[in-house]
Design a protein that fits this description.
- By secondary structure, this protein is of the alpha/beta class.
- The protein has one domain: TIM Barrel.
- It has 13 helices and eleven strands.
- The strands form two sheets. The protein has an eight-stranded parallel sheet with strand order 1-5-6-7-8-9-10-11.
- The radius of gyration is 19 Å and the shape is globular.
- This is 2-amino-3-carboxymuconate-6-semialdehyde decarboxylase.
- Belongs to the metallo-dependent hydrolases superfamily. ACMSD family.
- It comes from Bacillus songklensis.
- InterPro entries: ACMSD, Amidohydro-rel, Metal_Hydrolase.
Length: about 350
């Protein structure tokens, strides 16, 4: 019989059921809070307004496991919800919230080590605090990577302080997930939920472009960075970005054109359409694409891995890579600990 494809959902979000109320503690309602509406649901509030409704699967590992089993997911990679990054806040207060979330995610991964692994969060607006919390999260808590936002208070990923954090991640061999947040042009997107459907892909491309042009991938070629949402609009903009690099020598800080470095980055599969994913395969190769769904939110892919399974003219081995093995490799996990051969 055909071997079962091991599935790792690399892009999922989780929040502690007892999420700390820093809005009340510090008298600042810009901090997100979690208001429980029933035993099975809650709303995230920010700025005194409802930001998002969530169900119990946003915090309950047993509920998540039941849904994973129903959808054929073997392992989830847990990461914070981007609205909780709070880079705008005082760095020490942001660190407080980061620690609470990192402790929670680590506890879930420790309780169910065969089903969950965790990514932490850091106060990216302060490189020293961010590096120290990354060290604690990885070395003391056992988290296996860090999720960061696509910018910190409008500073792109080529900002010197953010670059200092990324250099530390490279030296520690800590993989990074970049998730869009505080999107570019958000003031022009108040209607139609464009912030999610148009703003986030544009923001992700800007973040990836900033990283590529920074030159850090020349200095640290083994830096592991994955961009959510299939890299946003980056794959489709690369020819134009390459042309800009060619015709404007003064913008060059890299040895090679941008498309060269784009192939060194990783991307999740959250693009919905197999034709889009096929385009990414041609640009980046199957070994740099990782299945991710944005569970448990409305824009998630369901069932997980459908866009991979629907690909045509792609080998079973390539699908196997994208559905699980690339995540294991990217995160530096022990493959034998997770992948159990089934027939």
């Amino acid at each position: 019989m055909k071997e079962k494809n091991f599935r790792v959902d690399f892009h999922t979000h989780i929040i502690p059921e007892d999420f700390p109320d820093l809005a009340a503690k510090y008298g600042d309602d810009r901090f997100p809070i979690l208001k429980h509406t029933c035993s099975c649901g809650a709303e995230i509030y920010k700025g005194g307004k409802s930001f998002r409704e969530v169900d119990e699967n946003a915090w309950d590992p047993q509920k998540r496991i039941a849904e994973m089993d129903a959808e054929g997911v073997d392992v989830q990679v847990l990461s914070p919800i981007p609205v909780t990054f709070t880079y705008w806040a005082d760095a020490e207060k942001c660190l407080e919230l980061s620690k609470a979330q990192n402790d929670f995610i680590a506890s879930v991964a420790a309780q169910y080590p065969d089903r969950f692994v965790g990514l932490g969060t850091v106060p990216l607006q302060d490189a020293d605090l961010a590096i120290a919390e990354m060290e604690r999260a990885v070395n003391e808590l056992g988290l296996i990577g860090i999720e960061i936002g696509s910018n910190a208070n409008g500073k792109n990923l080529d900002d010197p302080e953010i670059q200092r954090f990324l250099e530390a991640a490279a030296k520690m061999d800590v993989p990074i997930l970049v998730h869009p947040w505080a999107t570019v042009g958000v003031d022009r997107m108040p209607k139609h939920n464009f912030m999610y459907s148009i703003g986030m892909p544009s923001e992700t491309a800007l973040a990836a472009g900033s990283l590529i042009f920074s030159g850090i991938l020349d200095k640290y070629p083994n830096l592991k960075i994955c961009f959510a949402h299939g890299g946003g609009s980056l794959p489709y903009l690369l020819p134009r970005i390459d042309q800009a690099w060619e015709v404007w020598p003064h913008i060059r800080a890299t040895k090679q054109p941008p498309s060269y470095y784009a192939k060194k980055l990783y991307y999740d599969t959250l693009v919905y359409d197999p034709r889009n994913l096929q385009f990414m395969l041609e640009k980046f190769g199957a070994n740099h694409i990782i299945m991710g769904t944005d569970y448990p939110f409305l824009l998630r892919e369901a069932p997980p891995g459908k866009v991979v399974e629907d690909l045509e003219n792609v080998s079973d081995e390539e699908k196997k890579q994208m559905l699980g093995e690339n995540a294991i490799e990217f995160l530096g996990l022990n493959k034998a600990s997770f992948i159990k051969e089934t027939v």
